[in-house]
Amino acid sequence: MNENEKKILEVKNLTVKLDQQVVIDNLSFDVTEGEYLTIIGPNGSGKTTLFRALIGTVRHQGTIRWAPDAVIGYVPQKLDIERNVPLSLSDFLKSKTAVSNLEKYLELVYLPRALLNQPLGSLSGGEFQRALVAFALIGNTNFLLFDEPTAGVDKPSEEQIFETLHRLQDEKGLTIITISHDLDVVNRYADKVLCLNKRNICYGTPEEALRTETLAELYGSEHHKFFHHHHDIH
Amino acid sequence: MISIEPMSFALAAFTAIASGLVGSFALMRRMTLAGDALSHVALPGIGLALMYSYNPILGGALTLLVGVVIVWKVEHLSHLNTEAIIGVLFALSLAIGALTFKEAHELVETLFGGITPVTSNEFFLGSIVAALVIWFILKNRHALVLTLISKELAKTTGISTPRLQFYFLVVFAMTVILGMKFLGVLLMGSLIIVPAATARNIAKNLHSMLAISSGTALVSVLSGIVISQTYGFQLGPIIIIIASFFFVLTFVFNVLKSGHA
Fold first, then answer.
1. The domain containing residue A51 runs over which residues?
2. What are phi and psi of A12, to 5 degrees?
């Protein structure tokens, strides 16, 4: 690591147990300012739990050290909203902080401003997912934790969201950690990859980290299925 | 002949606004049952206080505080059957409460309320409590919205959901105490919930929800007082019947509207 680069997040010997089960085992990694780190791993490998530990909603052992100026925006994988809850999109976005220029954040995620006054329950899955991204960006967010950006979003919207993230990373020096299933996206955008299966299986640039043998170790028998899936898409 | 004490009238109005606001969030947080159980916890406290000649409001407030802690704890123990525990708490406090009353008329009054003139001390204390409740809800409305949407998102913006939930339950209990004199324990829970349910039928956003809910509660309470004084009906039941009328009206409106859409 370059001496001039500033560590914005330091994770050391992180262990998380849920119901006596070890979900994350002695995990260590650093994130420098402006970096784009993607976490990959099979289902149940502790990816979402890692995010929860990072934002402080699950108990953990070990060290998680955030830079004092880190302002975290979190995009959860899925949020179930009761359909008839009398809250508009604007109510949701304003619940984070009092901002006057909500339209600016909607533009970032390609949502029409007419949606602001719509009830939350009337938004489609993709629209709501993008609203969650807008919510995470509101304020002076400089660190984005993004759980499965592709879940519930169609392919064109997904591209738009990644383009937006990439642009923000360049323009504002936004630091990003995403959880992803899509190796194609990982190769295109990520500076670093962390392969997680309870413990650290591989860590480094996509070229270094994503070698066939590490993927085999990471996904085991699921490995084959994984690539099949991608052949189908392209 | 209508002769309504201005102070009673004003305090009832403040109470209505407070319960409309609290009810909006109680309903959105799906704690209708917990809220009802919580208001009944006041009953044994009032009964015991009467038995030992203490101030019944103080007795009710004390057991309510115990209820707040129980409901709060239960809400955080996700592995327990919350509904069952709250249901038992509800039934148990009603049963113990009923046993503690020696005089049937006292029990009926505690359950159903009635308009009795308030002393100036009660008026000032009541107004302060109502103002506190209204202030808390309005000040924390955004944080309350966020915690009901996602505890994790709330956490990333620095809001502690358990702490906010505890304060909310305390505010809920304070509102129950406010309404005990007018509506009684049994019906105060309804004044918190029915106007909020009415508002949810037609509200499109948070501010219309809060305005319609507290407006419905206010109109129900004030017109209830006038009707009960004019025709000699029991106050509490009249208020709830009026509020429920608004609920039915908005419900039908909602059904008709979505039928045409």
1. 1-70+142-156+177-234
2. -135, 125
B145 to A84: CB separation less than 8 angstroms, yes or no: no
Beta-carbon-side half-sphere exposure of residue B72 (alpha carbons within 13 Å): 19
Structure tokens at B2: 């209508």
**Which of A123-127, B137-141, B222-226 is predicted with the least confidence, judged by mean pLDDT?**
A123-127
CATH of the domain at A233: 3.40.50.300
Query: Which range has highest mean pLDDT (A59-68, A216-225, B104-113, B178-187)?
Result: A59-68
A68 touches chain B (CB under 8 A): no
Q: Which domain holds residue B100?
A: 6-254
What residues in B contact A119, CB-CB < 8 Å? 204-205
Q: What's residue A110's pLDDT?
A: 85
Whether A146 contacts chain B with CB within 8 A: no
Ranges of residues in chain A whose predicted pLDDT is under 70: 1-4, 149-153, 221-234
Sheet holding A175-179, edge to edge: A72-75, A143-147, A175-179, A36-40, A192-197, A199-204
- Please check whether residue B261 lies inside any domain of the structure: no
Alpha-carbon distance A183 to A150, whole Å? 12
Asked casually if ipTM beats, i.e. exceeds, 0.90, the reply is no
Q: What are the phi and psi torsion angles at B195 (to 5°)?
A: -60, -35
B171 neighbors B137 (Cβ within 8 angstroms): yes
Put simply, the answer to whether A52 touches B204 (Cβ < 8 Å) is no
